[in-house]
Design a protein that fits this description.
about 475 residues, single chain, two-stranded antiparallel ribbon
Amino acid sequence: MRSDRFFWLVVVLGAFFSVLMLVRSQVAGDQLNMLARGWFLITDGVWIPFGLPTSAGGKAPGGLTALVTGLPLLVWRHHRAPNMLILGLQIVAYVLLDRFVSRVTGRGGRLLFAILYWLSPWRLYHSTFLWNPNYMLFFGALHFWSVVQQRHRAKLWPSFLLVLAIGLPAQLHASAILLVPISIVLWWRGYFKIHFKGTALGAMVVAASLVPWSLAVLRDPALLPSGGGLLASGIRPLSYLTRGFGYWLRLDSLAVSDSMYCLDFSALVGPSAGRAVAPLLPSVWWILGLLTVPVAIWANLRLWRHSRGWWRVSPPRASDRTWLKGVVRWSFLVTLLACFFSPTTTMSWQIVVLLHLAVMPTVLAGQALLKSPKRHLALRGTGLYVGLTCALLLAMSFGSPMYRCGGYRCEAMNATHPILRSHHPMLEELGIEATCSFEVDQPGGWWPDVLPEAEMGSQAIRE
């Protein structure tokens, strides 16, 4: 009963920080690009059939970006409306994952998963503001749920959803491609079955959703990315692999990324106090890492200990726990290979789609520790971890770039508040100016890729 009360306390804390961070979420360059696509859908009925600009040139394939931003704006014409959809999807994702985890690991594992996933700074940061990688958490969970549903026999609708969980988010962010080799390897090693009719039906839906984009590419081939994708051929430096390994461990810890930990409290406590606190922040980050990353290392080593024959086909009668360990091992190895062959330096948001699997080693190891004679030590460590997590989340909610107006951005491009060379009614009608005003009408400034400038009309987009 005490474990259940602690579990619900963690759930409430996760919900509290979710709402706090959502109502403080800000708009930067990527958010303007996404909102512009939704804006045209609700004001002019224009569905822009391509996504955001890619690092490989051109635009991301598919028009899903316009739908996931535009449809929430129909309900509430505010820039935070799409954020509510992201958070809603994340709640669904957690419910899907929680049911399986609680069945496999019991109350102790369920509590640890709530702490390491639901209360995770990585999850909260990537589910409370508008950004295309933030949708990956939901689709990663949906993909895993579809695999679980087909562990023993192929099913039509889970196979259908499995394909959608890969094909649709690929229109939002290229990191969804990582689910392709993971699916192939898990199917090859017997971890789930495939219903070929369901797969074909899902492929047809994905293909149909790409028809408008294909027609747009025929009219303008420049929309097509010219570089390689996430798994492009060509061996990269060893650092690409080590970064992937490092992020896998960090997703299971409090060693958050630079853009998440770019804390500036000047607006909250005043410039002088903010400057006084700033020199202490790097030391605090290292302390958080030294306290939590070794736990992730220990849990991952424990996952591989005594793992004889792990490469063999998964036996049909294997326990749920053994099956889950195999899924995590293979997903980890495929992720390392993907990072090794990636054409770009691996970043945290490229593997956040696997957050639910990255925390599983500690969930499994911690659940066993809670049943051992060291139970009291494990409980104290868990309480300390929750306390540190809440302190970090509170700091992020008021000091991280995407949750404050102004301040230092640590040269994080995805959190930059750009100077605009023009003005547009969207800035006022979606409450962007009221939340945090932009500097506008500056020659040589930046501008969203599809938004007409002041002297242009919406007809330019149709053309």
